[in-house]
Write a structure and sequence with these properties.
The chain crosses the membrane at residues 155-175. The chain has 192 residues and is an alpha+beta fold. It has two domains: 8-118, Immunoglobulin-like; 156-191. The chain has one helix at 154-191; strands at 2-4, 8-11, 14-18, 23-29, 35-42, 47-55, 60-62, 71-76, 81-86, 95-103, 106-109, 113-118. Strand 5 (35-42) and strand 6 form a beta hairpin.
């Protein structure tokens, strides 16, 4: 049987990284053990895949079709924590990774680390301030709504025209008051 337990704590919980990067998953153990197993749960194939077992002497046994050059287990702090390092990541490496120890014919699983490997990270648009330059900078967005006509784009002139119209409408009452005040003053001066 498989059981998840807080006796094996994994960090981080989630990793989103790019193809060809490398990553590391840490597993801390609060339990006596003879070594650590690493498994991957594949959502696509709906099964656990054995990756590697590393005993307390550091000897590793690899699963079928698991590359020893890409997957390696490293011990830290005298058998209380281990890390799984994966290099040259592929999208097929995506899945939930579990460290595990064997106890009375059961496997106790760690808390799990979700790994997603993508070709390009979904980064937010840059919000850094652009340096002031003397030449006008033409920004072309990938938005379908924006036509590639630059400064004449409806995305630019429609809000601009609406803003100018609102400004002019706001000035009408002020201009009218100013006109009436000037007329009263003119009448007062000419009556005397």
């Amino acid at each position: 049987g498989f059981y998840t337990t807080l006796l094996l704590t994994q960090t981080p919980e989630h990793i989103l990284t790019r193809t060809n990067n490398r990553t590391e998953i840490l597993c801390e153990m609060k339990k006596e053990h003879s070594g650590v197993y690493w498994y991957r749960w594949s959502q696509e194939r709906q099964h656990f895949e054995f990756l590697v077992f590393s005993n307390t002497l550091g000897k590793a046994t690899y699963g079928t079709n698991v590359s020893q050059e890409r997957f390696s287990v490293h011990e830290a702090r005298s058998h209380s924590s281990y890390s799984l390092r994966i290099s040259h990541l592929h999208p097929s490496d995506s899945g939930i990774y579990y460290c595990s120890v064997s106890q009375s014919s059961q496997l106790l699983l760690g808390t799990g680390t979700q790994l997603r490997v993508v070709d390009a990270l979904p980064l937010p648009p840059k919000t850094t301030q652009t340096p002031v330059s003397k030449k006008p900078v033409l920004w072309i967005t990938k938005s379908k709504a924006a036509s590639r006509t630059g400064l004449c784009s409806p995305l630019v002139w429609i809000p601009l025209a609406a803003g100018v119209l609102l400004l002019l409408l706001g000035l009408v009452p002020t201009a009218h008051r100013f006109y009436r005040l000037r007329r009263r003053l003119w009448l007062r001066v000419h009556r005397q």
